[in-house]
User: Which sequence fits this backbone?
């Protein structure tokens, strides 16, 4: 019976070989497909990590820009809208922060006041949507990516309003964020060959492209498949599609800057050929080798080497099964016998080695991701949805900011909650609960205690990460340290509170209005005078709070100040009270009156006091005039009987002196002496009264000439006392010449009279400017002697009429000469004093103005 070919050993051996190869072939195909799928997933994951890193970096830039604009909006250089000062400031900031494309300050109409880099001509932002948004929202605004008018590069504009004291927008400060930092990031994270990174806006216009950016930037390609996918998802995702250059790639995309909506997306593409190159190469090589070995095996089986073939096949089958079970160390090992089967075993071992290397590459990819995250200037974390599991990952920045190592933080699931300030826990946990329950993004500001006990403010932004089925996996977020910004905010609030306290502490009415009369600010004193509280009147019109006639008068006064730009002051009477009103204009940057500060001082009591003093002064002046008239008349009327006494006394001396006895002659001498003293006293009294009654108009008087004439008149006295009078520099001033002569004569004669025994008098007369007087307006006339001096405790008596420090027997005189000196000096608007010590001489100092006030009445 002829045996069937299918039952032959050769066929069976061939069939055995084929059966043994089938699992290997299947495994190779499965492993190849798995390798391609893994390569695709890892390529997408790497691309997504890079896209997220770009997005996170952009988010940081946006928040930094917001902080910078918030600080700039408070600077006086920008609030003053001085083009030169703000241009210098912007140029300095642009040098310090190369990540920004430029700064600008614009008026509410959009016209650019200053910028860095400087604009080549007049530039306006009025037509920009972001500019209109910032005027409407009165808050920080981030615009869409567009070609900047100042830089000429694709930028996104961040803008912040600047308010005046009335809370109105007086300017808008902007900063441009370009994408140059992408080049720096890509230089640190090298892209694979053929990989691309693209940023587009919501219209499909390419804002940035790496590489070959010059070719693509600014082109609108909304019909490209990958751009349609990105715009359709409006979120994060991956896709396999043709790029803008027509090359098939694996793409990962995400919104650019997820903390603030910018309507821009970033996507990273890795060529399909690059992603699958390794897997395809290994699979092709393995299939080729397997095919060759299979053919050789069939030949060997056909030639009758069955046992050896079966043995090698079993070894390969065993290794294949181990590899399929997950043992990446499984190898076929060295073979003995047929060389072709040894090559097949080597190919299998190479395949297993490739799988092991791929696993190692996945670990390295994770390491690169950690490095990228750890370079971000913020705390990056991954938290489990289960509160008991705590934090799954946290970046090393936790050590620098809070003093805890990542290992310490991860070891305690409750450490984050423990470190949150008790006052912030409720609102923070509520926001976190909403995020976990509804999936809404988590955004919260709260305080954390550092290890050293200090508090730091953080802005925490996180989102749920979901699997492909949409199920939440974990919470991924970023914690930004905002301590310095919070401290600046607190300082600003303290400053505003201090100003408000000072305003309210003013005991007088103080308020601020705009040009329409609307009250912008008022203190409690003003509100109380109106019978209201300060919050009640702020925002109301001042003209509605006072009677109609008063309102009309106030409106006219305020309009005059608005049109003239000059302060005004006026008094009015309300309710029996006299108010001294001040209106001070406050100008804007263009020099126009924008607001007005009004101060009302109640001067009722002061007015009453001034009126009482005026009446008292009039009465006192009338009384002094009557006293002076009385003194003059009395002195004049006393002259006649005194002359008769002296005349009859002279006759008695001439005719009856020898007849009278010694006692009679003594009485006669006493009478004659007393009459002489009375004559001198009356003359002095007349001279004292004439200081203010018999006066001459003020005119230029050369004191040096007057002093020489006085010395000439006193020559006899000087010779009698063996004295010397030295004249120094003396000025010319406006004065009554007769009274200046009387002043110098009284002072010099007084110095000659009170000389020390056996010491010839030395009198020095000179002038000097009054120390500290502005512009040399006053001069001091010094009369210095070496006489007996006196104790300065008697200084108050020295210039009083008829006051004497020595008896009449010691020194002659009536004691009225120095009183006349003081009255002369005071009439000229000056003062007189003296410096002396017993036995050390005396210096009289008369301080006089060089010029008398215009219109001064000498009467």
Assistant:
């Amino acid at each position: 019976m002829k045996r069937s070919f299918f039952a032959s050993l050769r066929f069976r051996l061939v069939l055995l070989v084929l059966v043994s190869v089938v699992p290997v072939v299947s495994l190779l195909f499965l492993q190849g497909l798995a390798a391609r799928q893994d390569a695709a997933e890892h390529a997408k994951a790497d691309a997504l990590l890079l896209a997220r890193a770009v997005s996170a970096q952009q988010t940081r830039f946006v928040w930094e820009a917001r902080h910078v604009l918030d600080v700039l909006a408070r600077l006086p250089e920008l609030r003053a809208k001085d083009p030169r000062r703000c241009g210098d400031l912007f140029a300095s900031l642009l040098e310090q922060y190369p990540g920004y494309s430029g700064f600008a300050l614009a008026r509410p109409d959009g016209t650019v006041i200053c910028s860095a880099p400087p604009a080549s001509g007049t530039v306006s932002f009025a037509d920009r949507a972001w500019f209109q948004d910032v005027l409407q929202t009165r808050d920080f605004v981030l615009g869409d990516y567009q070609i900047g008018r100042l830089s000429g590069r694709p930028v996104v504009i961040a803008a912040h309003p600047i308010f005046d004291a009335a809370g109105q927008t007086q300017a808008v400060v902007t900063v441009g964020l370009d994408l140059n930092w992408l080049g720096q990031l890509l230089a640190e994270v090298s892209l694979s060959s053929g990989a691309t990174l693209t940023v587009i806006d919501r219209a499909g216009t390419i804002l940035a492209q790496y590489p070959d950016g010059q070719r693509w930037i600014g082109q609108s390609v909304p019909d490209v498949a990958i751009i349609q996918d990105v715009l359709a998802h409006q979120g994060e995702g991956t896709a396999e599609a043709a790029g803008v250059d027509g090359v098939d790639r694996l793409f990962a995309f995400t919104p650019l800057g997820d903390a603030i909506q910018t309507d821009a997306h970033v996507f990273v593409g890795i060529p399909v050929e690059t992603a699958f190159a390794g897997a395809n190469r290994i699979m092709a090589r393995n299939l080729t080798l397997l095919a060759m070995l299979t053919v050789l095996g069939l030949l060997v089986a056909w030639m009758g080497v069955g046992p050896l073939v079966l043995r090698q096949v079993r070894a390969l089958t065993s290794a294949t099964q181990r590899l399929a079970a997950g043992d990446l160390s499984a190898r076929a090992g060295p073979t003995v016998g047929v060389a072709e089967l040894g090559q097949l075993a080597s190919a299998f071992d190479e395949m297993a080695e490739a799988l092991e290397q791929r696993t190692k590459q996945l670990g390295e990819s994770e390491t690169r991701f950690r490095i990228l995250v750890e370079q971000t200037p913020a705390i990056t974390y991954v938290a489990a949805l289960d509160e008991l599991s705590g934090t799954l990952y946290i970046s090393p920045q936790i050590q620098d900011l809070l003093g805890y190592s990542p290992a310490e933080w991860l070891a305690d699931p409750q450490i984050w909650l423990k470190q949150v300030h008790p006052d912030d826990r409720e609102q923070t946990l509520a926001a976190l609960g909403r995020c976990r329950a509804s999936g809404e993004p988590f955004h919260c500001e709260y305080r954390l205690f550092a290890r050293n006990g200090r508090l730091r403010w953080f802005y925490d932004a996180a989102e749920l990460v979901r699997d492909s089925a949409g199920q939440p996996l974990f919470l991924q977020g970023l914690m930004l340290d905002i301590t310095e910004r919070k401290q600046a905010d607190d300082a600003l609030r303290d400053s505003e509170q201090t100003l408000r306290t000072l305003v309210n502490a003013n005991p007088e009415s103080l308020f601020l209005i705009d040009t329409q009369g609307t009250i912008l600010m008022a203190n409690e004193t003003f509100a109380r005078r109106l019978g209201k509280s300060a919050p009640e009147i702020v925002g109301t019109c001042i003209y509605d709070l006072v009677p109609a006639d008063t309102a009309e008068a106030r409106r006219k006064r305020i309009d005059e100040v608005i049109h003239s730009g000059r302060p005004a002051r006026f008094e009015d009477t309300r309710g029996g009270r006299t108010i001294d009103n001040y209106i001070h204009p406050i100008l804007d940057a263009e020099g126009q009156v924008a607001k007005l500060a009004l101060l009302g001082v109640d001067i009722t009591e002061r007015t009453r006091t001034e009126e009482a003093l005026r009446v008292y002064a009039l009465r006192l002046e009338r009384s002094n005039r009557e006293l002076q008239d009385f003194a003059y008349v009395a002195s004049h009327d006393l002259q006649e009987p005194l002359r008769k006494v002296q005349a009859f006394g002279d006759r008695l001396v001439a005719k009856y002196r020898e007849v009278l006895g010694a006692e009679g002659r003594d009485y006669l001498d006493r009478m004659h002496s007393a009459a002489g003293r009375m004559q001198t006293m009356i003359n002095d009294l007349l001279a004292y009264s004439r200081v203010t009654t018999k006066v001459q108009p003020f005119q230029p008087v050369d004191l040096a000439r007057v002093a020489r004439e006085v010395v000439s008149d006193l020559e006899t006295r000087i010779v009698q006392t063996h004295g010397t009078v030295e004249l120094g520099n003396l000025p010319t001033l406006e004065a009554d010449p007769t009274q200046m002569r009387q002043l110098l004569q009284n002072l010099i004669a007084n110095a000659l009279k009170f000389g020390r025994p056996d010491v010839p008098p030395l009198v020095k007369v000179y002038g000097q400017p009054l120390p500290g007087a502005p512009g040399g307006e006053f001069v001091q006339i010094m009369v210095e002697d070496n006489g007996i001096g006196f104790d300065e405790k008697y200084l108050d008596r020295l210039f009083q009429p008829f006051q004497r420090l020595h008896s009449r027997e010691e020194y002659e005189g009536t004691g009225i000469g120095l009183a006349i000196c003081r009255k002369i000096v005071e009439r000229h608007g000056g003062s007189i004093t003296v410096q002396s010590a017993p036995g050390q001489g005396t210096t009289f100092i008369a301080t006089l103005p060089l010029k008398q006030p215009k219109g001064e009445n000498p009467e």
Q: What stands out?
A: The radius of gyration is 54 Å. The mean pLDDT is 77. The first strand starts at residue 100 and ends at 106.
